[in-house]
Amino acid sequence: MGVQARMDRRYDLVVLGGGTAGLIASLYAARIGARVALVEQAEQPGGDCLFTGCVPSKSLIASAQLAHDMRTAERLGLEASEPNIAFARVMERIQEVVRRAGVRDTAEHLESEGVEVVRAVGRFTGPGVVEAGRRALRYRAAIIATGSRPTVPPIPGLEGADFLTNETVWDLRELPTRLTVLGGGPTGCELGQAFARLGTRVEIVEAAPVLLPGEDSEAGSFIANILAGEGVAVQLEAPVTQVDPAPEGGGALVAGGRRVEYDSLLVAVGRAPANGGIGLENVGVELDERGFVKVDARLRTTGDRIWAAGDAVGRMYFTHVAGHQGLTAMANALFRARRSFDYSAVPRVTFTDPEVASIGLSEAGARARLGRDPLVLR
């Protein structure tokens, strides 16, 4: 009787995905008295930011920064020294930081706040119903917050290579001797600089003419010079056309007509949707041309009573964006608040050293919008 009542319970809000957007949406909905179910297949909620993104990467950067400061202490009038890099200990420390940072994201904490956490794969089976494990969760509103995953580009030979991504690099316990980073965006530049400072020979291969192609070209050129000064090889305008993995590990890739040997390969070329198999076709939720969930300005999908937030919508893959989208979608879903999400003034930072921070339009974007050269102050 108790089990049947639990299975037939109707929720005000069912959230698919326990990353930042899903956590924020479900937590704040529960705090205002809504009946909320958070469906997450992982053992613990937290998502990319906690386990494979912001938290571990910034922890690695902190260790790398200290190693760099030790080597360059003379610039501050101190005696320089070469650090002894215990890489396995560095990576174990990172996992401890992740554990401490995730204390308030645990299922136990969420349930203490009134969120029912369902550990299962969620799938829409029809209007108003999410199947999760052996349960049918009936909802008044739903939010898709299934996040994203690393893009694996269709490069010949890559699928057969033993490559790393931002999800798997944290499993390393031995420092790579030679690391080739495929992609010179924020992830590639941050991790590339960090590994170089820890003692790896790093080469970054980018198809665009500058690093950080999403930022002003001056910033990308400046960071390229900084990295080169620290011993990082930077290859620009070099699309990768072939990857040749070696049977014993490592391999080589062909980029810009040049062959680049590597011991480890890190693929960091963007994000892809992670919404496969959740039954979107059963509830009329359409996808855009890239495969992300299509939403309007209020984060509402084309499905009835279904919203989406975070990386699932494919716009600005930042934790603070996901959190605000989660709040916006929750308010619109439960209270018909009709709030729109404004992307025009979202701050962002790439945590290289020095950092690259920006907000609003780039110079090129301003020029395109104005139809003339904008006023630029330096």
How does the helix and strand content classify structurally?
alpha/beta
Order of helices and strands: HEHEHHHHEEEEEEHEHEEEEEEEHEEH
Total number of strands: 18
The multimeric state of the shown protein is single chain
Percent helix among the residues? 25-40%
Count of DSSP H/I helices? 10
Q: Cα distance, first to last residue?
A: 70 Å
Sheet-strand content, in percent, reads 15-25%
Largest sheet: 7 strands, mixed
Low-confidence stretches: 1-6
Please compute the radius of gyration using only Cα atoms.
23 Å
State mean pLDDT (0 to 100 scale): 94
Query: Globular, elongated, flat, extended or rod-shaped: what is the shape?
Result: globular
Task: Characterize the structure shown.
There is one protein chain. The chain is α/β, with parallel strands linked by helices. Helix content is 30%, strand content 22%. It is built from 10 helices and 18 strands. The protein has helices at residues 2-7, 20-31, 47-51, 54-71, 87-101, 107-112, 186-197, 217-229, 319-335, 363-370, and strands at 10-16, 36-39, 115-118, 122-126, 129-132, 135-144, 148-150, 178-182, 201-205, 233-235, 240-245, 251-255, 258-262, 264-267, 271-273, 306-308, 347-350, 356-359. Strands 1, 2, 3, 4, 5, 6 and 16 form a 7-stranded mixed beta sheet that branches. A 4-stranded parallel beta sheet has the order 10-9-8-14. The protein has a 3-stranded antiparallel beta sheet with strand order 11-12-13, with no helix packed on it. Strand 5 and strand 6 form a beta hairpin. Helix 4 crosses helix 7 (186-197). The longest helix has 18 residues, at 54-71. It is globular.
